[in-house]
Amino acid sequence: MPTLDQTKERVQETVKHTVEQVKDAVPKEIPSAAELKEDVVEGTKKSAESLRAFAAGAVGGVFSVAVGHPFDLVKVRLQTAEKGVYTGAIDVVKKTIAKGGPISLYAGVSAPLTGVTPMFAVNFWGYDVGKQLVRSVSEVKDNQYSVGQITAAGFFSAIPMTFVAAPMERVKVLLQIQGQKDLKPGEKPKYAGQMDVVRQLYKEGGIRSVYRGSAMTLARDGPGSAVYFATYETIKRRLTPKDENGKPGSLSLTAVCAAGGAAGVAMWLPVFPVDTIKSRLQSADGNPTISSVVKGLYSKGGLKAFFPGMGPAMARAVPANAATFLGVELAQQAMTKMFG
Asked: Span 55-178+191-339: which CATH code?
């Protein structure tokens, strides 16, 4: 049993230790009014930049759908059709137009129009937030992010985007493949529209059915977005003329379109097989697994089976992504003129 002196000594040590902890927790200097004001201004500026990125991304999404949807429809039908249904991309176009006219190339467009707009908005917002996170943990020289920093921010952008993209693409794929089915006289399509798709999916399997393919969507969009933004920024910088100080000069819309088109191609090349698996997974009946889809594809056509629709996807990538970044940059310019 400790003596009175020992107990007194322990109490003094405890009090001393507690006082030191409190001292460490208290700021050495209380921020001045000017510093607090600067922090508020900086926080407001970051919030405004994120909102602008969100709005600009939405504009870019509309541009992308308007240009790229017919190409996407051809890609999805080639990816999901049984072997022998189509001889190639041109055959898909011919049969689609013969069946429903040119407007049928925009079958299922309502889903991406209402889904891609928020998807791109969230994507570019996520990219802006990703850049802010990168800046908080590393140095950004002359306000120019390095390729590695852009890549990290691009990968991060795919995380929030997946929550929007996965169900939207599930609906889009089901509506697109429904359009290639030959209906008997008097037979009605299974789905009456995108909301009907969501309703039926939820009834069949709950929220998990609506979000089927989310893992593959993230597996596609994580590395895809990393390459996407890194390629765009790198090529845009090289094509944009420098001012007398060696910094990027006035923005060239030609450079934007060229960089956007190249970014689209660079994004699709490494992740196209993942997209094929995702499309099959989201369009299959029952409760397929990723491994069963992979085995089924390989057994039917080997490695080649993972690349159907590659031509239409690459053909779409250039104009659709050029249009995306053109819309984003034009929206950013307009907001800068309006709000400063």
From this structure: 1.50.40.10
